[in-house]
Each structure stands twice: as structure tokens, then as C-alpha cells.
Amino acid sequence: MKAVEKVAIQEKAINLRDRLSNVVSVNAVSLAYEAIILLYHLIPFTYTAKIPTIPIIENSPKLFLLPDLFVLLTAGFWGPFATWLATAIFIPWANAYFFNLTATAAAARPGSITVMYKPAEEYKADPLTFAVTKALIAYLVHYKGFGFMGLFNPRNLATVGESVGRETQLIGAGIAGLAALWESILKR
After folding, report:
1. In the chain, at which residue ranges do the beta strands (DSSP E only) sit?
2. The model scores a pTM over 0.90
3. Which sequence spans correspond to the domains of the chain?
4. Helices 166-187 + 127-142 axis angle, to 10
5. pLDDT over 60 (residue 151)
6. Is 143 helix (H, G, I), strand (E, B) or coil?
């Protein structure tokens, strides 16, 4: 019985590794990390909950801090969060979708100068273009003060930069870019 359980655990670990071993997962982990940091900064933990002593299990009372979810009804939350969504996900994704370098692979016909294109199987948005666009936006917004011609509130951009971290966004984009390059090299 133990051997069967061990094999099942190994198979699940291999399956998980296979699912996480791609550039989309690298981007998802990076963006999830940024989102958690931003949400922790934007949502205050102001309420307390107490778990009383339970005599049967002989525990001591515990106090827990709970988030104030009423902040989700304010512009103070949605302004910075929507700014982060736009600059970290939507704008890079749109750019990667329309400038998808992996959507077509050039293959020259033998004896001809014309180039044929065949559709790629994998990504609707180019992961390398996504990473480069995200890094470029983070650099322009947080280091050069570019506000997208007034589209984003400078206070919201500052909140995102201070909470998530300017370097965190650049490092996440760099790691995703390296993963995209590595994956494309392995596919060749």
C-alpha cells in the first residue's frame, strides 16, 4: 500500500511540474505575487476576531486580524488596483496579442524567395513581447514619470510603484522574458 501511495504522489508531483514548467506559469506567479503585495497594501486589516479557549482540545485563545473589505467600495482601492491591472496585465497583453511574434513562423520554400507563414500552436499573445512591454511600461511609468498622457492618475501610479515596488515589476518582467527566450530556444 505504501508503494502505491508513493508512486501516486510522485505522479502528481511530475504532473504539477509539467503544468508549471512554461512561461505562462512564470508570468502567472509573478503577477500573483505583485497582486498579493498590492492587495495587502490597499486593504487594511482592522477588525479582530477571537477564537476562544476550547477546553476539550486545551488551546489558548487566539486573536486574528481580518481585512476591512468595505474598502472595496471606495475609489481609494479601485484607482490603484485598476491602474496596476492596466499597466501590468491589460496593456502588455494587448501589445503581445497584436505584436505576436510567435503567431507565425517563417519558413522559406525550397528554391523560392517567397516566405510562407504557418500558425503557431501555443500562444495567443507572445510571452516575450508581454515581458518586454511590461518592463518598458514599468520603466517609463516609475522611473521616467510617464503618465500615458494623463490617462492614469499620478497618485495611483505612485501608490502602485510604492506598494508593489518598481524593481519588483522590472524583475518579474525580466524573469518572464528569460523564461520566454529559454522556452523558444528549447522549441527550436
Report:
1. 45-51, 62-67, 104-108, 115-119
2. no
3. 23-43+74-187
4. 160
5. yes
6. coil
